[in-house]
Amino acid sequence: MSDSRSLLLVSLSLLAIYPAIAGIVPPVLDNGQRSASSLNPFDTSNYGKLQLDNGLARTPQMGWNSWNFLACNINETVIKETADALISTGLADLGYIYVNIDDCWSSLLRNSKGQLVPDPKTFPSGIKALADYIHGKGLKLGIYSDAGSFTCQVRPGSLYHENDDAELFAYWGVDYLKYDNCYNLGIKPQKRYPPMRDALNSTGRTIFYSICEWGEDDPALWAGKVGNSWRTTDDINDSWASMTTIADLNDKWASYAGPGGWNDPDMLEVGNGGMTYLEYRSHFSIWALMKAPLLIGCDIRNMTAETFEILSNKEVIAVNQDPLGVQGRKVSSAEETGCSQVWAGPLSGGRLVVNLWNRCSNSVTVGAKWEVLGLDTSTSVSVRDLWKHENMAEKVAGALESQVDPHDCKMYILTPTTSHSSI
Ligand SMILES: *[C@@H]1O[C@H](CO)[C@@H](O)[C@H](O)[C@H]1NC(C)=O
Ligand SMILES: *[C@@H]1O[C@H](CO)[C@@H](O)[C@H](O)[C@H]1NC(C)=O
Ligand SMILES: *[C@@H]1O[C@H](CO)[C@@H](O)[C@H](O)[C@H]1NC(C)=O
Ligand SMILES: *[C@@H]1O[C@H](CO)[C@@H](O)[C@H](O)[C@H]1NC(C)=O
């Protein structure tokens, strides 16, 4: 074919940015140029093909989890109050619908029938009553167990009890299971995680399956067929160092995410006090772009206005929940310092999301050239700033550039306004 060379070049340049589409040949115009619609250049029918087919996680899950703020200090009162707060703050309406109980809900021992038992001191009404309460508000309830002999806080684990425990969860009306990795007897996760998938499926209840094996055995390579999301890293903590480290580690697996199964760089720390406002805004911007689960980890009964402003940014949430479901990636990083970083990815409707991120402590100019974004040099775009909620410019061409404060992350949507394919 006469245009095979240009086809190859186009494919290579796209692959450099979107390795998610390895093997998928992007559409090429007759003259060998990428069209503006090739911003969204690939056949999305391949997305989700390798993913668990339980109908869930078409977009990343959103909700709240008890661990980051409360750790083991949980009880049915605080879970109910949190559900109430999701409603009263309006966060539920924005998509935060899962109320997920983490470790420590269970008694130290199973009952005489071998069943898990909610701790009678902290969950005296039981999980079924709690699920009814949560469902009554239009929300969904998540619970936690472990693919080992104990949970991390040494409650009974579900290894070799998968069917019994899944049945109990389904009977209680649980909608989501986070499945941890402690006390795993050194058995490969590829052996320990599928039995719970099958047990959940056998209950007939649709239950979101969140795999938490800390990224130890490269779960992106096998977990798509097993769970709806898989942790890619060790636990996050409430610091800039942890958040940035985890973002970089999660980025490596971008090509394996898609509708039905997502990389999980762990829950949000926004609002827990260990980072500044701009750092939390970066955290939220990058998690949204990476199609990470948006699981709030702070006390939403008592949020500051700044915390609420971050978590409730509809435009940023819309990037995370975009139906195209392609994980954005780091596409450039200032070579020596790594200070100026560009993270980007395609969105539905031929749009692009672009984050300009300053990872250092001096103000810098961060620029994204069209070639780095996979845009044709002749394309001009309109630019929307998702934190200012303003349209910045109608016809930008060649590059997008901005002064970015230390640890800040600007977030833009680029919409092509021209698509020159003239020769
Ligand atoms: C429930 O947990 C919350 C959060 O840790 C705590 O403030 C509250 O005192 C607890 N309530 C009861 C009744 O134990
Ligand atoms: C069980 O798995 C089958 C095959 O993947 C799927 O079609 C079905 O929806 C699943 N059911 C539940 C309850 O997850
Ligand atoms: C938080 O994570 C960072 C980066 O991984 C690590 O250096 C630090 O020791 C952690 N802090 C705590 C309190 O665990
Ligand atoms: C609410 O949060 C503030 C810090 O933002 C804290 O000082 C206060 O103790 C919290 N109140 C409750 C009831 O937790």
From TrEMBL:
Pfam families: Melibiase_2, Melibiase_C
Listed transmembrane segments: none
Catalytic activity: Hydrolysis of terminal, non-reducing alpha-D-galactose residues in alpha-D-galactosides, including galactose oligosaccharides, galactomannans and galactolipids
InterPro entries to which the protein is assigned, alphabetical: Aldolase_TIM, GH, Glyco_hydro_27, Glyco_hydro_27/36_CS, Glyco_hydro_b, Melibiase_C
Residue intervals of the Alpha galactosidase C-terminal domain: 338-414
Keyword Disulfide bond included in the entry's annotation: yes
Alphabetical keyword list: Disulfide bond, Glycosidase, Hydrolase, Signal
Signal peptide feature range: 1-22
PROSITE patterns tied to this protein: ALPHA_GALACTOSIDASE
GO molecular function: alpha-galactosidase activity
GO biological process, one term: carbohydrate metabolic process
EC number: 3.2.1.22
PANTHER family: ALPHA-GALACTOSIDASE MEL1, ALPHA-GALACTOSIDASE/ALPHA-N-ACETYLGALACTOSAMINIDASE
Record-stated family: Belongs to the glycosyl hydrolase 27 family.
Protein name listed in UniProt: Alpha-galactosidase
Species this chain originates from: Iris pallida (Sweet iris)
